[in-house]
Specification:
This protein has a six-stranded parallel beta sheet, with helices on both faces. By secondary structure, the protein is of the alpha/beta class. Helices cover 55% and strands 12% of the residues. The longest helix is centred in the C-terminal third of the chain and has 36 residues. Helix 9 links the parallel strand 5 and strand 6. The chain has two domains: 59 residues; 200 residues, 3-Layer(aba) Sandwich (Rossmann fold), CATH 3.40.50.
Amino acid sequence: MKKFIDILIKLGSVDRRYIFVLVGLSVLIPLIWPINIPIRATQQSQNVFNAIEGLAPNSKVLVSFEYGPSTKPEIHPMSLALLRQLFENGLKVYATALWPDGLFMSADAFGTMESEYDLEYGVDYVNLGFRPGNEAVVKGIAADIPTLYTTDTRGIQITAIPMMKGIHDVKDFDFVFSLSAGYPGTKEWVQYACDPHNVPMSTGCTSIQVTEVIPYVEHGQVKGILAGMPGAAEYEKLVNHPGLATGMMAAQSFAHLVIVAFIIFGNITYFVQRKRDQKK
């Protein structure tokens, strides 16, 4: 027992520089070599998954990119997981961006999808791109898409894109998904498009935004919610494709374990050493 206590004391007295190295390695290693840690999806993430799974093949899904580089670590992994589910289920994907940076996020996401799936632009997906105007854009999509979007991100006339035939307003979509980091985002889709026109929708957002979106979820206006990086990792698990979010959650978990372990060792060292000093 005394030998075991001495080992704990040595661990609690280790040079802080070694602790920094261990914490750094606990973060770096899972990011370089992703570790598939056990992840249990919350009911909210499961609700999102079930809502998408319930769509019939060839259903039309509008995906809105409302985030940029600063929130990419949280939302981009869920956007990739979502697109994988949509394409694997044979759904038609229509992308738009309420944020200027969302245009680049969508281009990056579709670039990844094209490397994984045999997709044909204009048949399997179309990217309508960014239009300025915030909630006015949402209202425009709700009322008259061909007037709002005359060309797509490739400069192709909307009338020349096969997927756009019969698409006039938000009611022509079977589902809307908001990848949101703030304003404009999920709330605007609920208030100005999906709720008034009875179009089902769901969302993935940053952790800090969950509190303002959750009332819409509880009232059934939004079908589930992917909450920040944990939500992204849960969705990667649900679509059976562990990715960046899973790696980041593993890194976070291991770093926390290392920190907690050394806090315990440090406290043991302090109390044992104090007790020994009192006996002297």
